[in-house]
Amino acid sequence: xxxxxxxxxxxxxxxxxxxxxxxxxxxxxxxxxxxxxxxxxxxxxxxxxxxxxxxxxxxxxxxxxxxxxxxxxxxxxxxxxxxxxxxxxxxxxxxxxxxxxxxxxxxxxxxxxxxxxxxxxxxxxxxxxxxxxxxxxxxxxxxxxxxxxxxxxxxxxxxxxxxxxxxxxxxxxxxxxxxxxxxxxxxxxxxxxxxxxxxxxxxxxxxxxxxxxxxxxxxxxxxxxxxxxxxxxxxxxxxxxx
Length: 242
Known about the structure:
Blueprint: E1 9-13, H1 25-34, E2 39-45, H2 53-63, E3 70-78, E4 97-101, E5 105-106, E6 111-112, H3 114-122, H4 128-143, E7 149-152, H5 157-160, H6 170-182, E8 186-190, H7 198-206, E9 211-214, H8 228-238
Parallel strand pairs: 1-2, 2-3, 3-4, 4-7, 7-8, 8-9
Antiparallel strand pairs: 5-6
Helix pairs in contact: 4-6, 6-7, 7-8
């Protein structure tokens, strides 16, 4: 079983390269050092047409070396469709990690807003099983699209559609955990969205998937500050592996 991670690291940090964040790369690094972190991984939002990635990774590289702190350049991309295509530029020079995010439901022809999926579920046009199977299948396929994947805020989409992590059957959860292990992926335990729950953490840990803590911070004041993550990891450690 994978060991639960120490909280002296933050594997999902946004900078002003993301249009919804307020802190610079340097401000985030200074905050990480002040809080005694040993790893910080930036994870700014990209789309297929994001032309700034080379400037971003060059700016991250220019910060190094930072004594006692490993500084990584990552990007966060949503799953676009049922085939697991990701909203990524074709070239990712200098990117160490790709965070795979379930921002919207990956439909057959493209992303579907969670409000629309909730409406379809309420109308009986889709069943919870169909939606969960579709999300798991697309996520498994997305894991094979990149060399260094990380599952970002896994299952944070479910409540937005009126579902919850317990709705995910054990076999589906095991399938996803095994796919993550084969892909060499990491599973982040996310402070902002307080997910995934202990059950999922245990399943991935049992499959041998490395776990990493993340704040999903958009302000350097939040870098490396954990409460929900600590509770989730404590609950996972206190429970038996299913």
